[in-house]
Amino acid sequence: MSEWLAPDVIASAPGRVNLIGEHIDYSQGFVLPFAISFRTTAHIRRREDHVIRIRSQQRLDEEISSSIADLAPGSQGGWERYVLGVIWALGINSGVDIEIDGDVPLGAGLSSSAALECAVATGLNELFSLGLDKKQLALLTQKAENLYVGVPCGIMDQSVSLMAEAGSALLLDCRDLSTSLVPVDLGASDLELLIIDTQARHALVDGEYAKRRQACESACSKLHISSLRDIEMPALVASKKLLSEEEFKRAHHAVSEMARTLEAVDVLKRKDFAALGSLITESHVSLRDEYEVSCLELNCAVDTALAYGALGARMVGGGFGGSAIALAEQGQIEAIKSAIADAFKSAQFAEPRFFASLPSEGAKVIKRLDR
Ligand code: GLA
């Protein structure tokens, strides 16, 4: 393997969980995610040529080499496309060496890809003095994922990875990317948010995600609105006959989820965690029955958590596998974990993994080294 010199810039960015507001970022709704304590770090060195080298501490046997001239949206490859896509989207015209390290669980639906994109984008922004603000970086990293990697994701994951602050969830208005912080101090109320990685990875994810977006878009065109943000529930119900059954169910989820998210902000401010739990569970039911993005493993995790006393539980992220969250009293967490592990074993599902995380800070430059 070729020699790697010390980096000029080190930057890092976190993964996320979403408290509530699922599958509505691309319908211009409100979402309420927070950054988790697991992060991805990018060590970046500027080169004097146009070569791009990428490697990861998690895969030391592989070193990827490309060049600025070879950057092309839609190119084949693996995880390195998330890095190449960001270099492309930011219009970098110099070679770079990028070494990645991190502990965001991969494939768990906790946005390891956004963490990777945002760590690289934050580092490049600093190294090349691009002067991009967090909103611009969110749009560019989303562009990298949409166009370069070909994943039709919304704007939530990149925004929270960039804009989050420790101790708070981020209320993000996906229409204009304006934000406000909503303090979340579960510990002070003896509560914890348990993250359950079902380890289920159903292959349908990307295709089904795109179909959900299309159903929302076709509902909007039939309703003559530009996004589902532009309609209230009574008007949607009154227009039911204009939509197919599927479009109505998808739109019904989106419109009700937007209202639940705003209500969640209110109850969080009042520290009414029982009400927050109910909203979280209602979100799951809507994602399961109306948006149809849950799966057996996620439902099992949620139902078991609720049966063992959680105040609320739901799937998070895109669905069809990945993680669920359960809001519960600290004293009940161990019993919930072992009940879920037992239930998974009897159902012959993969062994679930459990994580806990306080709301953590967003992307940052850790170090700029002079040479
Ligand atoms: C994935 C996407 C996000 C968002 C969620 C569902 O995580 O990347 O943009 O749509 O699914 O809320």
- Helix-strand makeup class: alpha+beta
Backbone CA Rg: 21 Å
Oligomer: single chain
Largest sheet: 6 strands, mixed
Going across the major beta sheet, what is the strand order?
Answer: 5-4-6-3-1-13
Characterization of this structure:
- By secondary structure, the protein is an alpha+beta fold.
- The protein has helices at 80-89, 112-127, 134-149, 156-163, 205-223, 233-238, 245-269, 273-289, 296-307, 333-346, and strands spanning 9-18, 30-31, 33-46, 51-56, 59-67, 96-102, 168-173, 178-183, 191-201, 312-315, 321-329, 353-356, 364-368.
- A 6-stranded mixed β-sheet has the order 5-4-6-3-1-13.
- Helix 2 (112-127) crosses helix 4 (156-163).
- The longest helix is centred in the last third of the chain and has 25 residues, at 245-269.
- It is globular and about 60 Å long.
- Alpha-D-galactopyranose binds at residues 22-23, 25-26, 153-154, 156-157, 317-318.
What tags apply to this protein structure?
single chain; 371 residues; alpha+beta; binds alpha-D-galactopyranose
Summed up:
With 371 residues, this protein is α+β, with helices and mostly antiparallel strands. The chain has 10 helices and 13 strands.
Topology:
Blueprint: E1 9-18, E2 30-31, E3 33-46, E4 51-56, E5 59-67, H1 80-89, E6 96-102, H2 112-127, H3 134-149, H4 156-163, E7 168-173, E8 178-183, E9 191-201, H5 205-223, H6 233-238, H7 245-269, H8 273-289, H9 296-307, E10 312-315, E11 321-329, H10 333-346, E12 353-356, E13 364-368
Parallel strand pairs: 4-6
Antiparallel strand pairs: 1-3, 1-13, 2-7, 3-6, 4-5, 7-8, 9-11, 9-12, 10-11
The site of alpha-D-galactopyranose (GLA) has 10 residues, from helix 4.
